[in-house]
Design brief:
2 copies of one chain form a homodimer.
Chain A (H helix, E strand, L loop, with lengths): L1 E6 L13 E6 H4 L1 E5 L5 H5 L9 E5 L5 H4 L2 H10 L6 E5 L3 H11 L8 E5 L3 E5 L3 E7 L7 E7 L8 H6 L6 H7 L3 E3 L5 E3 L12 E5 L6 H7 L4 E5 L7 H6 L5 H11 L3 E5 L10 H9 L5 E3 L5 E3 L6
The complex binds zinc ion (ZN) (2 copies).
Chain lengths: ~300, ~300
């Protein structure tokens, strides 16, 4: 599981940072990629990575500002043109369907794969046996969602040493025991996998927020997350401007990370007013409050390691 | 007057060529830029040039395929965000209004300048005292327009030597004579500017075609043009494929240029199947038929010099 930042700027494209898009790479977990937001030229950014558009399984749109959605029609079309045939599901606020449908229909784009568009509300918007995705509304003037992606816990490690000592040799039976099932042995005794399993291995939690002022729902979505991706459009000291434009500062993001008790904070959605020479200062402002902070850059890639227990 | 090629590829963005956009720089002529087509990331390409989005006065859209329009919403929004206040007029096939209006409305983009959208038919779509823009439908499966931009002729050079010899000294009177007007001199004699003017200086003609198979309207729009920008999606020998996909080959473009009697041909809209090493071959195929041929590249700039007479 990795985060691959495709666009980390705010509002308009700039040479150093493109507009918003972030890929959650789930290649080991499900041979798929989930995209969060899709600003203009996201498909261009992808050309400079190893990401295959055909692997994109889901796209989550936080809000409908142009810098978060104008890359959708092109990416959707190119994914088909390049031979993508598997289903693509797009989740976003009410209005996303109109934008996509009108864009594809005026351009007479015909897709070779099934496209599903889901206009979301707060709550659980997706779950299967691996992941759960929950959303809540943030504070951005227009509906802007945050996403909390929870990986389900996995059964702990099977204690094969103790099983062998009990005279149960490795075989298909181990698979059942590993799932916590009970199994009857040849000589009649029944053993339960639960007695030989270590504690559940906790799934990872990734919180990716759309544009927002600091708010209670941001805090709740980030609760004890392994990684929190929070916008930091402005530097510390610009809190008035942040309020006016419905954004956050570096220190506001750090305070959310600290209060929510996350493991790591990634500052994202950085205004182009800050030049390369300013970036160190931005991350230091946050680290004064929450030490384990990184600043995202276009094409930065961050691994989220599985838990050991 | 210059042509600045912003995107010269076909169908999908590639590292070497972005999707379609071409700027006709009319800075000396009217302190303005006219854009022809606006594929995704046109505003990103502009970041690498000296072109100021606020100077873009008109955008002409040849047809509604995604690689020619998906950059419009972003460019329109950024032009406002960057402080553009002068009117912008967009000309394009029926459907362009829906695409722009839905894109701007779902993203709640409010513009600080007047935006006019004109859905065009064949014929004269714009004229003022400097320029005339005429369109005709090409052959591309969906409505695809070609544009013929005609600069109006200007009055010839005033023969000041002969005027002085006649005892008429330079002064405000020369301005009237230059316009071909008649003027009464102090001693009563009337002189006509027409008697002292050289022949009209011919305006330039630039023909910019949307995607098309070779066709009669392409020929007509290109008649005696100074510059013809013609698509050449495929290499010579791929005429069957060109027919199937409603495109042209290098030699088909060259034949149109030759028959139309243009001064210069620029091959544009080059498929990404052709790599840098193939480009020389493409231009040579056309030059065998029409010697004064160039191949466009992203960011290539070509001057169209004024006529001397
Ligand atoms: Zn926003
Ligand atoms: Zn086309």
């Amino acid at each position: 599981m990795e985060l691959l930042f495709l666009g980390t700027g705010a509002g308009m494209p700039a040479k150093q940072r493109n507009v918003s898009s972030l890929a959650l790479m789930l290649l080991q977990e499900r041979n798929a990629v989930w995209l969060f937001d899709c600003g203009e030229a996201t498909q261009h950014q992808i050309l400079h990575t190893s990401l295959k558009p055909g692997k994109i399984e889901k796209i989550f749109i936080s809000h409908l500002h142009g810098d978060h959605i104008y890359g959708l029609p092109g990416l959707i079309g190119s994914r088909s043109f390049q031979g993508g045939t598997t289903e693509l599901t797009i989740y976003g606020p009410k209005g996303i369907r109109d934008f996509i449908e009108v864009s594809l229909s005026v351009s007479q784009t015909r897709l070779r794969y099934p496209l599903t568009i889901i206009e979301i509300e707060e709550g659980c918007i997706f779950e299967d046996d691996q992941f759960l995705v929950e959303t809540a509304l943030l504070d951005h003037g227009i509906p802007s969602f945050g996403f909390r992606i929870t990986e389900r816990d996995r059964p702990g490690t099977l204690d094969s040493g103790r099983l062998k000592a009990k005279g149960i040799p490795p075989g298909p039976i181990y698979k059942k025991l590993k799932m916590g099932e009970s199994v009857q042995l040849d000589h009649g005794e029944t053993v339960s996998g639960l007695d030989f399993l270590g504690p559940d291995i906790k799934g990872r939690i990734i919180t990716i927020l759309g544009d927002t002022r600091p708010c209670a729902n941001a805090l709740q979505l980030a609760e004890k997350a392994d990684v929190l991706v929070h916008e930091a459009t402005f530097a510390a000291g610009n809190e008035e401007m942040a309020v006016e434009y419905f954004h956050s500062t570096t220190t506001q993001a750090a305070n959310i990370a600290k209060e929510a008790g996350v493991q790591e904070l990634i500052l994202n959605h950085i205004s182009s007013r800050y030049l390369k020479a300013d970036w160190d200062q931005l991350v230091h402002e946050a680290r004064n409050i929450f030490p384990n902070t990184q600043l995202s850059n276009d094409f930065s890639q961050m691994t989220i390691a599985p838990h050991k227990s």
